[in-house]
Design a protein that fits this description.
308 residues, alpha/beta, two-stranded antiparallel ribbon, 11 helices, 13 strands, globular
């Protein structure tokens, strides 16, 4: 098992097809197939189920994909550091983060971090917490900020803050009788929400269960930018944190209303506890905690600080 073979294997997993992996790697399809066949013989397990639509990893293939990703990234980081010849750590660190959190955190975090590690690159993965959790577990991210992660063996969770969330809809369409909206009124509205694999949906479902009510889900959309587009068209309502609708277009087209009793979701930082951490990664995690603390203390991020 060598790095080149693992890279070929990973490309087939990521593209779901030998032909598309071949196009991406600019290597003939038979060459990729020979390397994967050799890997399957070495491991004594089939790594893919092949069909007319492409190639789907088996359980063994998914395990190899998840475990080999951080190894290959570490090799890339070492190679980059040696080739660069510059002082200080190099390489790439991948951070996964919800877009609403990124609105407050990302710019000050990057600005502060790059003062100490100017030669370390950052790659940002954005999405709902379910996607972020998957990226972390599969080794595609080194550290993640996500809402309400559940305890999981092999991963460390550090609470950061708690954010209030609001009913959000097209300007002029929210119920106008009172300055706030009750849980019952919220759940009766036609809601556009992410699927149940995501924390924000889970928290809303838990509120409904506690009130012996049901959630009126008109549409499931696993992308906050698409949800905001639908909201601006007046096609439903959603529940979002302030950071998720603070760009100029959304401020003009959307409005929000507090939910009572107050609804909020916690944000935590999560990383694998069993994988080695480089100096830049340790520093990034410390910088995330310090940046969150300072933003809240200055009033730039309306949230309750949980990190002690």
């Amino acid at each position: 098992m060598d790095a080149r073979t693992l890279r070929y294997f990973q490309a087939v997993v990521e593209f779901g097809s030998y032909s598309r992996a071949s196009e991406y790697l600019r290597i003939s399809q038979p060459a990729i197939s020979r390397q994967v066949d050799r890997l399957e013989k070495e491991l004594g397990k089939a790594l893919f189920v092949r069909n007319s639509l492409g190639a789907t990893p088996t359980d063994a293939g998914r395990l190899l994909f998840e475990r080999s990703q951080p190894i290959l990234r570490q090799l890339d980081d070492v190679a980059a550091e040696i080739k660069s010849g510059v002082g200080g750590p190099t390489g790439t660190i991948v951070i996964a983060i919800p877009p609403g959190v990124g609105h407050f955190l990302l710019a000050p975090l990057v600005e502060r971090y790059r003062k100490s590690f100017p030669n370390t690159s950052l790659k940002i993965i954005a999405g709902y917490s379910g996607n972020i959790h998957e990226a972390l577990v599969r080794g595609r991210a080194d550290v993640a900020c996500l809402h309400g992660p559940l305890p999981q063996k092999g991963f460390k969770v550090i609470p950061l803050l708690e954010e209030e969330v609001f009913l959000v809809g097209k300007r002029g369409t929210l119920p106008a009788a009172r300055p706030t909206i009750s849980t019952a009124e919220l759940l009766d509205l036609p809601l556009i929400l992410p699927s149940r694999s995501h924390t924000s949906r889970r928290i809303i479902e838990e509120r409904a269960f506690a009130s012996d009510l049901t959630v009126n889900v008109m549409m499931e959309v696993d992308d906050t930018s698409l949800i905001r587009t639908l909201l601006r068209k007046g096609l439903g309502f959603s529940v979002l944190s302030q950071g998720a609708f603070q760009n100029e277009i959304d401020r003009k087209g959307l409005e929000s209303k507090p939910i009572r009793p107050r609804m909020s979701w916690p944000l935590a930082m999560m990383t694998a506890s069993g994988r080695p951490r480089s100096e830049p990664l340790e520093a990034l995690m410390s910088t995330i905690r310090a940046t969150v603390r300072d933003l809240i203390a200055r009033g730039d991020w309306p949230a309750t600080h949980l990190d002690r």
